[in-house]
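Lab meeting tomorrow. Look over both lines:
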Amino acid sequence: LEAGSRLAYSSHLRSYVGFCRRHGLSYEPTPDTLSLYIAYESHFIDARSVKSYLSGVCHALEPIFPDVRTARDSPLVKNTIAGRLKMSQSAVTRKSPLAASDIDRMIVKYSGGSYDDVLFASLLAVGFNGLHRLGELAWPDSKTLQSTRK
């Protein structure tokens, strides 16, 4: 796994372990435990994100509990996810995508400015044309996430 994914998955596992500890449940991922975790967690995060949290939990627990995927694929867990998604339906709002003309305007605006302005315009042009993610354009503060491959 990529270092950033490992970091996110470890936070998902910490949230699952904290949930089990707070509610006096076994750490073993049964369909009941995972279903309760989904219902609990979707009160704090967007219901659409619960699936990725559950994926991180399953990935982290698989070496210890090999049957975690079976519990994850149970009808109870699937129906709990579907029910939480229906209960919290809200319209997805998206920003308009950047166009090449937007990048051109930014380069014109910032090209004659300070070093930081020129650097920003350069990062914007490289990121747009190279289809990079924001995390690939900046050097992360966390040493574990730093990689010269990107």
Q: What stands out?
A: Residues 3-88 form one domain. The first helix runs from residue 3 to 23.
